[in-house]
Amino acid sequence: MESKINNEKLFSEFPPVSTEQWEEKIIEDLKGADYDKKLVWKTPEGINVKPYYRSEHISALPYLGSFPGHYPFVRGNKTIDNSWEIRQHIDVADITKANRIAVDALAKGATALSLDVSKVESADDLVVLLKNISLGSTDIHFYGSRNYPNLLNHLLEFGKKANADLTQLKGSFDFDPISYLLLHGDFYHHESVDFGQTFDLIKLGGKIAPDFRFISINGHYMHNSGGNIVQELAFAMASVSDYVAMLTGKGLTADEVIPRLNFIFSSGSNYFMEIAKFRAARMLWARIAEQYKPGDKKIMKAYVHAITSNWNKTVYDPYVNMLRTTTEAMAAAVAGVDSITVNPFDTPFKEADHFSRRIARNQQILLKEEAYLDKVIDPAAGSYYIEQLTNSLAVHAWELFVKVEQMGGMMQAVKDGFVQDEVGKNANARRQDVANRRQVLLGTNQHPNQDERMLERIQEEILDPDEEKTETKYKTLSLGRASDAFEDLRLATEIFIDSGNKQPEVFMFTIGNLTMRKARASFSSGFFGCAGYKIIDNTGFKTIEEGVEAVKKQNPEIVVICSSDEEYVDLVPEICSQLKTAGSEAILVLAGYPKDHIDSFKQAGIDEFIHIRSNVLDTLKSFHRRLGIME
């Protein structure tokens, strides 16, 4: 039987709803609550993110009609698939060991390598380092040199010794005088020498290895020093602008310079913002590169490498780092970057081993082979939310870029300390968010594994490298991790215990209202667990006397009273009195902050109040000092 075709418009019975109607309904449901405070997310970058977006919010964006592989390259450089290089970072200076790891990585799924050349002193060293590695099929990225022109000379000689065709060489040098200045407070050699070397590398190197990238722009250092996304984008663009202006000013053409540039950005944990960041980076660079009027517009495509963040990685509960790097690699892949490095999960506290390198490599293989993220180009395209984020990040980054240009460019801004100060201010704010647990680091400042011990697993030179602290000519960035301070607390506790001291015990004096005592005991257990103290929880005491007797038997260093605010009025004075009579010297803590009774409870004997607005880090430091764990 033939089916009848219904020509009526599907869902025609549902009339369109305007934005004004949506807003009216939202305001009605808020019942007088502040719209901005309740629903608008204010990001660290200064962007106000609405609770929803509609097509009208992005209708004016000029690049929406562009295609993948076309200017301004928001949608990526690729036109066939979304494949990217799986780049294995080999953080090993010993050239023989590095080669062995590299060859194994290539055999097991890596398609590109980052190699430390800090100990390469001759072409013979390169023969050893690059043994059994095909220059034509493997992109090779060199880092760690103090003299990249010398490295280029070694490569030339290597080509002759190994009969290697250097015109097939693809990859990059991590030569970035501006980032070196930011990290070390001075130049590799001298400002004029360093910038002279950028000219020589591109002029000479471009003829030797036409597909090789000799200058890197390391935006990820901003991120890993605590900077935000706008700062990472803007300062990277200001750096590359300095390089291109200087090089073209010396006589090189834009067509000679632009294809030799290599952008390196972090990929952090803010999934959608990171997708938008990579898309915005390509657009920003295309706008800047266009001003130099290259003969071929295709060369304005930014080659972008993504490295998973170091800032949000932790020593404690380190396997959570695998979850973090997975979402970070996903964001970079969805955004269409050209290559990705997933840092091994254990790099915050030790040199990566075979297992952690394999896991890092396999995370990318899974994203390709099982999640098929290499099949679809720019799947985020058309998303009202991501398109709006892309544009907002580009606009804010451009404003900061222009500000730096007005200061005389990136080099001058670094010499003046502007870049370091701006990143430092943002880092302090981010650390404060971690201290107050507005930013959660699972396993570190929230839900810690109280049985975990990391002291024996840590390689001291990794966590606290033995570097001479000397005064520098210019201010420097401070690379670090958001979890540093909390990890110092936990490690101090472990050292305290290993020195023959008793592990501090925190006793939960749970009494009264079942719901409140359980909730507050759970909160307090997590609070003190962040410092590595032993938590002694209880199901609840029927009487004060029963609880006091249990405290006497356990003799803990800290007692936390857990009940409801209403019951505290009668319970707190009596508990404090009985514990004092029983001879307990424990520090008395109240879970909660009943503001009308703070003074009276202090007079009764309460030493500290812990609650959702507490600065967890500062509070735990004060307990460490009282217990003699930390000065």
Largest sheet descriptor: 9 strands, parallel
Q: State the strand order across the main sheet.
A: 7-6-5-4-3-11-10-9-8
The rounded Rg comes to: 29 Å
Helix content: 40-55%
Number of helices: 24
Assembly form of the protein = single chain
Category by helix and strand content? alpha/beta
In angstroms, what separates the terminal alpha carbons?
88 Å
Overall average pLDDT = 95
What overall form do the CA principal axes indicate?
globular
Weakly predicted, low-confidence segments: none
How many strands in all? Answer: 16
Strand content: 5-15%
Question: How would you sum up this structure, described in words?
Answer:
The structure is a single chain. This protein has helices spanning 19-30, 35-39, 55-58, 95-107, 123-129, 148-161, 177-184, 191-208, 220-223, 229-249, 254-257, 271-290, 320-334, 354-369, 384-406, 410-415, 418-435, 460-463, 484-498, 514-529, 544-554, 565-581, 598-604, 616-626; strands at residues 41-42, 48-49, 85-90, 112-116, 139-143, 171-173, 212-213, 215-218, 261-267, 304-308, 339-341, 505-510, 534-536, 558-562, 587-591, 608-610. The protein is of the alpha/beta class and 631 residues long. The strands form 3 sheets. The chain has a 9-stranded parallel sheet. It is globular, with a radius of gyration of 29 Å.
